[in-house]
Amino acid sequence: MGKKESLGLKSGNDVYKAYRNNTDQKWIRDPGLRKLNMGLAFMFSSAAANGFDGSLMNGLLIIPQWSDDIGDVSPSILGLIIAGISLGGLPTFIPAAYVSDWMGRRFTIALGSSIMVAAAIIQAVTNGPWAFLGTKIMLGVGLGFAQTSAPPLTTEIAHPRHRANVTNLFQAIWFWGAILSAVVTMGTLHMNGSWSWRLPVLFQAFFPALQLLGLFFVPESPRWLISKGRRDEAFHILARYHSNGDTSDELVNFEFNEICTAIEQEREIEKPGIMSFFKTKGNRHRLLICVLVGFMIQWAGNGIVSYYLAPILESVGVTDSMSQAGINLGLQVWNAVLAALGAMACERYGRRPFWLLSASGMLCSFIVITALSAVFADHGSKAAGNAVVPFLFIFFGFYVIAFTPLSIAYPVEILPFDLRSKGLSINLSVVFGAGFFNQYVNPITLDAIQWKFYFVYIGTLAAMLPTIWFLFPETKGRTLEEIAVVFDGPGVNHMDAEDRVFGGGKSIDAQSVAPKAEHI
């Protein structure tokens, strides 16, 4: 029986396991995979940078010297400062997607990270609310470029055995940035002088600088190179990092041909662009999911805690600054651990079950939080107020096991190559738009109606369950190219690559570029 026949109806990871591959099963023992995965870890830095900012403002708001140096500002100006990253990111994502497709993933990441490093340094030496806001917006612009390209790059260059876990882990690293932010702000809380807040602000350059360093270890996306007609370079990269330079490797040849086939078919259908999302049923479905995911991850109730933890805790009687800072740090560590576990489990048990488990758990725990907050507000019950804290941990535990890892991974993996950066830019625009609304409106509404505002999030969480059930297909165990079949139907079948590796069909002929790989 030939190789192809022995594969039967296997797909996704099963197909990849069936091909001979010149790598060690344990990546830490393999030189090519060690270098690749180390570079991929650096690419997670844009998510960590986003997390650092998400926790930073909680810390700065309890540092007295920050308020003294920035000056007395109105609630509306404070809301703008808190939302500054969103103000910078919102108009940046879609142009960044075109830059990523035009100049490459690595160039766009380098541009964004450089802007963020410069903005952090400038912000650390500024005074006054408007200068601080301006540099926050500048940070948002840089984050927009980096965050638009880093997830596609990690997905497109990861080894097939690791792709799902690498993609799922990307956004889970958000919390490592939040942890560093909480630790730094706690450490500087009792420092004298303006460096008590300038030092945490300067640390905003740390993760973008790491990402710039990581670009020395990661190659350009083979899919992007193939889309630009640079197939020999793409094949060299696949061989170097996925088979330690073995150009006859079956897996590398399969990957190369599958990617070429997919991009050829996408180009034959239509010229890629934002309007392509409206031209086919499959693309409209993808666009809807990108928008829904962007809305859901901000309107699950998490936004009200992430940026306004202190007012939430004060509303239930926790008023000491160090107690609030300690709860914030503990919450970030809890979230980081569960997000990483959820990222791994999503690949083992499937995306849909975790989406549904996460939404159901958040709905139940948020109902309890609302009830406890109401009892504390109406009767002053200290026990009810204290009980809110563990339920905040339970709520976020359910949030991070799926909504954190899948917020980036799911949109990235359902999008075909030519629409991947553009679709992610739309998703991130919705995320930042919904986040800006949260950051600006939440404090006003919380001040006006207190715990009653939580009913809005109970309603949105309840609506998420049927949305996920009917609109979110399972993608577990499929290659990026095979996922297209889920949305576009069996007419878009990229498994022609198997024929090309084993002699059938019209061949792209990976071996025609293989000899050049020997000189790498």
TrEMBL record:
Main location class: membrane
One GO MF term: carbohydrate:proton symporter activity
InterPro entries, per the entry: MFS_dom, MFS_sugar_transport-like, MFS_Sugar_Transporters, MFS_trans_sf, Sugar/inositol_transpt, Sugar_transporter_CS
Transmembrane segments: 36-57, 77-100, 107-124, 130-148, 169-189, 201-218, 287-309, 329-347, 354-376, 388-412, 424-441, 453-472
Keyword annotations of the record: Membrane, Transmembrane, Transmembrane helix, Transport
Localization of this protein: Membrane
Pfam families, A to Z: Sugar_tr (PF00083)
Membrane topology: Multi-pass membrane protein
Residues annotated as domain Major facilitator superfamily (MFS) profile: 39-476
GO CC terms, sorted: membrane
Family: Belongs to the major facilitator superfamily. Sugar transporter (TC 2.A.1.1) family.
Protein name: Major facilitator superfamily (MFS) profile domain-containing protein
Organism from which the protein derives: Fusarium ambrosium
